[in-house]
Amino acid sequence: MPDPSAVFGREASSRPSRASLRTAVVWDVLKDALDRRVEATGKDSLDVLDTGGGSGNFAVPVARLGHRVTVVDPSPNALFALERRAAEAGVADLVTGVQGDIRGLFDVVGREEYDTVLCHGVLEYVDDPAEGVRNAAAALRPAGSLSLLAAGVGGAVLARALAGHFTEARHALDDPAGRWGAGDPVPRRFTAEQLTELADGAGLRVGSVHGVRVFADLVPGVLVDTEPGAAEALLKLEAAAAELSSFHAIATQLHVLGEKRA
Description:
Blueprint: H1 4-7, H2 18-41, E1 47-51, H3 59-64, E2 68-73, H4 76-88, E3 95-99, E4 114-120, H5 129-138, E5 140-151, H6 153-162, H7 166-174, H8 192-201, E6 204-212, H9 221-226, H10 230-242, H11 245-248, E7 253-260
Parallel strand pairs: 1-2, 1-4, 2-3, 4-5
Antiparallel strand pairs: 5-7, 6-7
Helix pairs in contact: 2-10, 6-7
């Protein structure tokens, strides 16, 4: 299989991009889960569902590994961009875009038809996150994996405080939805405990929890872009901190990988 860095459009020896700094942790966990599923099933190509997958930030790299990916997204514009990106990557035959959302997921896809389901950046925007996770889990075959990525409360609190918006930081800390005010574009944020409870309640066995973008959103871009070796060092730091529960509380995003119980 291709090297993950090449899959995301850069050579392993090149300096990591800002985008890769934000996705590397999730991608490494996801690719490992896909590889383990391939080994467990004996299949060369898996069936993968990406709910809210938009223009294919993860769907296209997954397809480049040889897997069949169905992307469900409510935006026609995003699905058009997905089609174009898949064609440019040479995986148009492996990527299918379907208009829909996670609430009405089974209006457009079947139950228990997928080896892996991605639910990235979705739970923040749905009315009932528990229903969303249950639907994602119901689309999995037994022992299939769910990759769950959502905004973290602690990251928002820290970001607002470091920007000097202390009242907003306190508001996000106290607000049940983790919002810093009426102008907050994100309707809901989560703690690691809340996400793992949602996964457990949907019949999933949680395998790992990672903090995502622990430092990447806080480090000045000029430092990463101009200081020799800074991007590579930051990428390694992100990977090392991601697994430590002490850093989950300040991560911009939280990633949970769960496996459907038999």
